[in-house]
Design a protein that fits this description.
564 residues, alpha+beta, Immunoglobulin-like, five-stranded antiparallel β-sheet, three-stranded antiparallel β-sheet, 20 helices, 56% helix
Length: 564
């Protein structure tokens, strides 16, 4: 096989996880705002009607909670300008493209360290998985949480790059990173430390001045987000949560206790990180490199690990008090995977000779296996999230019994692109079921209803079933339809993972039998509601009301204070 053919085959293999990642993203992504995606509509309104550039600049850099999300807002404005409306799928797509920006950086690092293209193969299989599901399908978070990592990594690489022009690019890149997510502020002192280790005083002075300007711009008119609840975590919680955070990439491993394996892998990665930091510092101080780029690699890896460890400490300190299990959630996994692929550099770069191909082949096998585990394990999360977004939008759109959408003629309310949603097919069937108790394809629904338990708790209405076995994906599944004399509500029935590894991998049974939902009373208006099961089975929809009713008391809706 010629080198050209081999290179082409390797490029195709590297492209496989990229294609799979965006195919899965496309299947579940939906143009519906989640939580603090909503204020972006107001930003478009403010920016469009600002009378001068100062007003437009203020709209771009205005605080969003404790963040400044200028990059997100720039992409939002570009999307609105190009397409004439704001589409949250486009925002998610932009964030996921930013995630791809790490792969060419690893290609440069491996290539300049005389490694073959084959050495890059494990990176996309580790980096691009459904383990990132929450950020994948959340417009603002996608740009912010993926973008900040890519921008910081490139900033750290460019600030120690021997090329003067590339170094100069690191200063505005650091500014953009800070105005993407505030944990990029760590890149400023870390970058200064790396440059100081190169003993280049002129560069250090320029970087420090640039960092000072960045810090001033970020904290100018900054107000502390006092509405965030204080987390009071013990030392034990912080240490345990810290290790679990670092090892959270391992959550999808086929073991019974996922948190424990994350904790153990975190301990191992922490020791590896400490070893890399100490070894790297020793080599940099000795400054005896046979290849010039080896020092650049050491400096970059040192900076990357310090950035990961510092970010982990801040997140764990502020969140551990709310439950350490939350520290292995999808939103934070990118830092665990990043630590893993930095450690990979220290495994593969020193390998020389005939053992190199064997080592890389073994790592490729493990990374492909990890990729498969991640998709199988986290598919249920993406499935549940899509249903949550769809039903949330139904509930804020239809607030009357006639199922007429809320009319809001304001500019901000009409910024978002109109996209077909599954519940639009339900509307005529809901009206029929309201009159006669059932509608659509009701075959099997009576039995399913009878096998489902309904229980009113002090603050919620709980529904559980242990027999439902459908394995259909996307919008298929069970929804809970509630009706009072004034309006309807729809809530998703959540599925849980199939814990049988044999049926999961051999038969593709992603879901365990049954479904469950806990509906808080503070999500509904006071009233008496009849309860129906709404089943979506591919293209067929069935709705059935029976005798179950629930009395929803008046409850306080605790709105979180925001600075939007």
């Amino acid at each position: 096989m010629t080198k050209g053919v081999l290179r082409f085959l390797l490029i195709l293999i590297i492209a496989i996880p990229v294609v799979v990642y965006f195919t899965v993203w496309d299947y579940y992504a939906i143009n519906i705002p989640k939580w603090d995606d909503h204020p972006l509509k107001g930003f478009v309104d403010t920016f469009a009607h600002a009378t001068d550039w100062n007003g437009k600049l203020q709209a771009l850099v205005k605080q969003h909670n404790e963040h400044r999300i200028a990059l997100t807002r720039i992409i939002v404005w570009l999307d609105y300008t190009i397409f004439g409306s704001l589409n949250y799928r486009h925002l998610m797509f932009a964030g996921n493209l930013l995630l791809l920006g790490v792969i060419p950086l690893w290609y440069i690092l491996l290539k300049n360290n005389k490694k073959p293209l084959f050495a890059l193969v494990p990176i996309p299989f580790l980096w691009l998985t459904l383990a990132m599901w929450e950020n994948m399908y959340w417009g603002m978070a996608s740009v912010q949480n993926f973008g900040v990592v890519t921008l910081v990594l490139w900033t750290l690489y460019l600030c120690v790059n021997p090329n003067t022009w590339l170094f100069a690019l690191s200063i505005p890149l650091a500014l953009l990173a800070v105005f993407t997510s505030p944990n990029a502020l760590f890149a400023l002192p870390i970058g200064a430390l790396l440059i100081a280790l190169t003993a280049d005083r002129k560069r250090l002075a320029l970087y420090v001045v640039g960092s000072g300007i960045t810090i001033f711009l970020f904290f100018k008119s900054y107000t502390r987000a006092a509405y965030n609840p204080e987390s009071k975590a013990s030392i034990f919680q912080i240490v345990k949560g810290y290790m679990a955070f670092l090892g959270s990439f391992a959550e999808s491993f086929p073991v019974l206790d996922n948190f424990r394996v994350c904790f153990l892998m975190g301990c191992i990665l922490f020791l590896v990180a400490v070893s890399i930091v100490s070894t790297t510092l020793f080599r940099i101080i000795r400054n005896k490199y046979t290849i010039k780029f080896e020092k650049t690699t050491d400096l970059f890896c040192l900076g990357s690990i310090l950035f990961i460890l510092a970010t982990a400490l801040v997140v764990v300190y502020s969140r551990a008090g709310f439950g350490i299990e939350g520290l292995i959630t999808s939103k934070y996994k990118i830092y665990s995977v990043l630590l893993l692929i930095v450690a990979y550099l220290y495994v593969v770069i020193p390998i020389r000779g005939t053992f190199q191909s064997s080592y890389i082949t073994a790592i490729v096998f493990l990374s492909v296996l990890f990729n498969i585990f991640s998709y199988h394990y986290h598919l249920v999360d993406a499935f549940n999230l899509r249903k949550e977004l769809v039903t949330d939008q139904f509930n804020w759109t239809y607030t009357n019994k006639e199922l007429q959408p809320v009319v809001d003629t304001s500019f901000a309310a009409n910024v978002m692109a109109k996209t077909p949603v599954i519940y639009e097919k339900w509307l005529p069937l809901i009206s029929i079921a309201d009159r006669q108790g059932y509608a659509g394809s009701s075959r099997g629904l009576v039995k399913l209803y009878d096998e489902t338990t309904f229980k009113k708790e002090a603050n919620s209405f709980n529904i559980e079933n242990t027999t439902f076995t459908s394995q259909r994906l996307q919008d298929s599944g069970i929804y809970i339809l509630l009706k009072s004399k004034d309006r309807f509500y729809v809530f998703p029935a959540y599925r849980t993972r199939n814990k049988s590894r044999k049926t999961l991998f051999l038969k593709q049974y992603y879901f365990a039998p049954g479904f469950h939902v806990e509906i808080p009373f503070n999500k509904m208006d006071k009233g008496t509601y009849q309860v129906a099961l709404l089943r979506q089975d591919g293209e067929q929809t069935g709705i059935l009301f029976k005798q179950v009713k629930v009395e929803v008391p008046e409850s306080e809706n605790n709105h979180i204070k925001v600075n939007w």
